[in-house]
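Anyone opening a protein record will find just a pair of labelled lines. A complete record is shown below as an example.
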Amino acid sequence: MEARVAPETVKKPTAAISKTLPSWAALETAMMPLGMILVQVFTMVTLLICKLALNAGMRPFVFLVYRNLIAAAAIAPLALIFEREMWKKVSLVVWGWISINAALGIVLAMGLYYHGLRATSAAYSVNFLNLIPIITFIIAIMLRAEKLILTKRPGKMKLLGTLLCVCGAMVVSLFKGRRLHLWATRLLRSQAAATSPTGLHHGMVAGTLFLCGSCLSYALWFIVQ
């Protein structure tokens, strides 16, 4: 005979388990902006280290090669373990897009940024990183890769975020505070060409042009991805 289980003996999800589900969802939602904040923190730390290396005499493209070689050595084992099946999807078209991504994001975006960082200061060059979302947003709208609908809440939030980026970049660039020596002052020495006022002005103009080109390359890089 088939045994039947009484309805009272069937286990149902407890209230404790049902209460933990919203908490996990809230944690996952909070981790997204937290991850973006951590990216910005790591970016600032990397920026300061890059500035010290460039002031010490490191060439921008040499530094870029060393950086990507170390990154490739660290990421390659993970790619072989977790993304091994992706090699089957690689074609000439994929290699073409990878080459375009590398040219825009590594050679142009980072290369021009390091040249601008070497000619200017870390506090000045970081303002151009805040302008990248604005340029990306404008180019994406022009290429019809992004739609701006001001009658809906997402469109208004995009426009508000763009204005906040502009205001933040202006505030940081106009604010002048006391210099903090967090490390040996000999590491903060400038290049010999920037010792005179004429050399300093020329370096700021050239550095600003490099940083503008870097912002444009970053924007195109994000859109291509």
Remarks:
- Confidence is low (pLDDT under 50) at residues 190-197.
